[in-house]
User: Which sequence fits this backbone?
């Protein structure tokens, strides 16, 4: 028998549920930039051009020369939970090589914006297709002339979710988030030419020549690039712990900033933050940095097996290790040895 007593609890309609879920995946323009850039990297692009207007609130465009999509691919790609990257759970357990695999980004972005995708398979003579998607509805799919690769254009993000739109910060703040994301990926992929343009001004463009030092120069400029030293420590040279290698570039202690945003750290190629890594870095510099000052760091950490959960959720940039203390000691030792080698640390013993 159906209950007849009155209740305040009722089922939300599908549209409301979908928009709430979307707000959790795409929180701000930078989240769309992150998802689209990851898709371009997963598509094996050798160039990625990111263009935003008004901090990304008016326009986010990510253009790549990756493998592209056929019309059928494109129609499938914007459906919910569609992916070409994994088949099922067993693929997750054996570890995923791609940055994405949940199959939710394109559909979600398209449900809270007006989204146009132009794509043409890079190999073969397939034609280009333009798909227009608006507030979760397919508006049109038409043939179009376009270069091989994919361009996704996201206009009026959150136009149909006013509550979310209201929480967007100033253009400067939203752009800072976008800049941080694109910078992270540009530095991690020096073999990909990555450019970022904001309101018609080119913010940076890497050459894609495959050199981390050159990528740092393109992104942070000459002063910072010339203050970077190489870190490359692995195997026996590291104290015991889950990390197998620590490599990258770190700045002279005098080249520092008051924000920790220039600590670009990666674990197994993914841009993440981890308290243990950050504490290891700061420990290596010790008192050489003034209070609340941070160096420039672009550091890659490789761990084996299951010492860290590599399938970190896309919204979570923070990872934890089984043994944080060991990781902290390993990072500290690796960076300290590089700084010492370059005579950049006052020895910890008294001077004179
Ligand atoms: P996921 O990346 O988790 O698979 P997305 O919703 O981001 O989910 O993308 C869905 C699918 O669309 C991808 O699996 C991929 O096959 C295709 N796709 C998305 N972006 C691109 C792109 N830039 N180039 C080629 N294929 C793409
Ligand atoms: Mg994706």
Assistant:
């Amino acid at each position: 028998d159906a209950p007849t007593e009155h209740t305040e609890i009722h089922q939300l309609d599908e549209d409301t549920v979908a928009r709430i879920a979307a707000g959790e995946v795409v929180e701000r323009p930078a989240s769309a930039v992150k998802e689209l850039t990851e898709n371009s990297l997963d598509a094996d692009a050798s160039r990625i051009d990111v263009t935003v207007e008004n901090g990304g609130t008016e326009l986010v465009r990510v253009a790549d020369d990756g493998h592209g999509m056929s019309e059928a691919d494109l129609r499938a790609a914007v459906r919910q939970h569609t992916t070409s990257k994994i088949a099922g759970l067993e693929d997750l357990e054996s570890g995923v090589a791609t940055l994405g695999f949940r199959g939710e980004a394109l559909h979600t972005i398209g449900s809270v914006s007006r989204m146009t995708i132009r794509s043409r398979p890079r190999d073969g003579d397939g034609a280009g297709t333009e798909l227009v998607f608006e507030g979760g509805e397919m508006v049109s799919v038409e043939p179009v002339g376009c270069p091989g690769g994919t361009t996704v254009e996201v206009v009026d993000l959150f136009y149909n979710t006013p509550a979310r739109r209201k929480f967007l910060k100033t253009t400067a703040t939203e752009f800072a988030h976008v800049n941080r994301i694109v910078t992270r990926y540009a530095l991690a992929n020096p073999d990909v030419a990555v450019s970022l343009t904001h309101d018609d001004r080119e913010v940076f463009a890497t050459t894609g020549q495959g050199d981390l030092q050159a990528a740092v120069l393109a992104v942070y400029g000459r002063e910072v690039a010339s203050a970077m030293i190489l870190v490359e420590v692995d195997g026996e040279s590291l104290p015991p712990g889950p990390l197998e290698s620590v490599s990258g570039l770190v700045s002279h202690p005098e080249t520092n900033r008051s924000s920790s945003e220039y600590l670009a750290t990666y674990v197994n190629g993914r841009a993440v933050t981890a308290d243990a890594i950050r504490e290891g870095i700061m420990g290596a510099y010790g008192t050489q940095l003034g209070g609340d000052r941070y160096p420039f760091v672009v550091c890659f950490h490789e761990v084996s097996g299951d010492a860290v959960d590599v399938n970190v959720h896309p919204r979570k940039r923070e990872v934890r290790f089984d043994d944080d203390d060991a990781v902290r000691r390993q990072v500290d030792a690796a960076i300290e040895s590089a700084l010492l080698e370059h005579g950049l640390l006052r020895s910890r013993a008294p001077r004179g």
